[in-house]
Write a structure and sequence with these properties.
- This protein has 251 residues and is mostly helical.
- The protein folds into 2 domains: 5-93, Orthogonal Bundle (Arc Repressor Mutant, subunit A); 100-223, no CATH class.
- Helices cover 63% and strands 4% of the residues.
- It contains 11 helices and 3 strands, in the order ααβααββααααααα.
- The protein has helices at residues 5-18, 23-38, 49-56, 61-73, 100-107, 112-127, 132-167, 175-188, 190-204, 212-223, 235-241, and strands spanning 45-46, 77-80, 90-93.
- α3 (49-56) packs across α4 (61-73).
Length: 251
């Protein structure tokens, strides 16, 4: 079973709430995760301690070594160390804690609407022959099913947008940017976000180097276009601005 970047982010956020992770450990994890994401999540990946120190912005190799030990003890990663700071260390992302049911719903999301329709038809038939207490029970079950399905649909949607972002070869996304992108997708919809990404790509002239801030600025301008300075809104404004233009509108 393959997992996506958002799956690892959610699992890390859950563990972060339970454990008091240091800033060094967090920087170390996101650096390792970023390298796996760039390589499209292979089974294992090699990173030396010196490289990890540079990627995470840590002060020393010893600090990087301590940080990755903390991550290993939490079962977020596993690694086999090489010799010395320049030695190759092979890393693996642990998936034991990742929830299988959420992933299953995501993989089968194209069938969610059909399943919901069939489920609603069965519920409507059953409601006609049960008493009021059974109706309350069915309402609770339907609400639970709808909530679970909505979460699965949202997960599928943001996964799709992240994949489109990576295929466009834009700048890297970290946890905060993915969270902000998720909110934008929920607010404006998948089609509008993709259209803004395409517009940002055209405005930049090439896909490489498109930052999140630039994309967001393009999105905001699409939703609320800014009028050019000195733009004239109607004929009356033209007359007031330039008396010589009055003859154009005279009877």
């Amino acid at each position: 079973m393959s997992y996506t970047l958002i799956d690892y982010f959610k699992e890390f956020h859950s563990l972060k709430q339970k454990h008091n992770l240091s800033a060094n450990a967090q920087a170390c994890y996101f650096s390792i995760l970023g390298e796996f994401n760039a390589a499209r999540f292979p089974e294992q990946l090699s990173i030396s301690d010196r490289e990890l120190k540079t990627l995470a912005g840590l002060k020393s190799v010893a600090t990087a070594h301590d940080a990755k030990r903390i991550l290993k003890n939490l079962n977020l990663i596993d690694f086999q160390s090489g010799r010395g700071a320049q030695g190759t260390t092979w890393y693996r992302l642990c998936t034991e804690h990742l929830p299988n049911i959420n992933r299953t719903l995501t993989e089968h999301s194209p069938n969610i609407k059909r399943t919901l329709s069939e489920h609603s038809s069965r519920c409507n038939t059953s409601l006609s022959i049960v008493n009021r207490e059974d109706v309350k029970t069915l309402d609770k079950k339907t609400t639970t099913t709808t909530t679970t399905t909505a979460r699965a649909r949202d997960t599928y949607l943001i996964d799709n947008i992240i994949e489109y972002w990576e295929e466009s070869r834009f700048g890297r996304l970290d946890f905060e940017l993915i969270s902000e992108l998720d909110l934008l997708v929920k607010k404006y919809g998948e089609e509008e976000i993709k259209a803004a990404m395409n517009a940002a790509k055209r405005a930049n002239g090439k896909p490489q180097g498109v930052s999140f801030d630039f994309f967001k600025a393009v999105l905001e301008n699409r939703l609320n276009p800014k009028k050019p300075k000195g733009a004239v809104s109607d004929e009356r404004s033209i007359e007031e601005e330039d008396p010589r233009a009055k003859w154009q509108f005279s009877d």
